[in-house]
Design a protein that fits this description.
A three-stranded parallel beta sheet has the order 1-2-3, sandwiched between helices. Helix content is 36%, strand content 17%. The chain contains three helices and three strands. The protein is of the alpha/beta class and 78 residues long. The protein is globular.
């Protein structure tokens, strides 16, 4: 089981929101943090992101430090 999933929203044939909804229905992935990655954060994106079951999002392009911060936020050090 992964500790975190980075979900690209722009996938061919199906969007990342739909994939996230499908993952959330599986016991294995129901509690795994899912971070949406997108270059298209338009009005309403945050609400759609939460409704799909994503825990957070990061807008592309992003800096490596931004990715590190969001991963650290959702995967506490053990």
């Amino acid at each position: 089981i992964p500790q975190l999933i980075l979900m690209d929203i722009s996938l061919p044939g199906i969007d990342g929101f739909e994939v996230t909804k499908n993952l959330r229905e599986m016991d294995t992935f129901s509690q795994v943090p899912i971070i949406a990655l997108t270059a298209h954060a338009l009005d309403g994106f945050s609400e759609k992101n939460k409704a799909a079951g994503c825990n957070d999002y990061l807008t592309k392009p992003y800096l490596p430090k931004d990715l590190k911060e969001i991963i650290t936020k959702h995967i506490p050090k053990s």
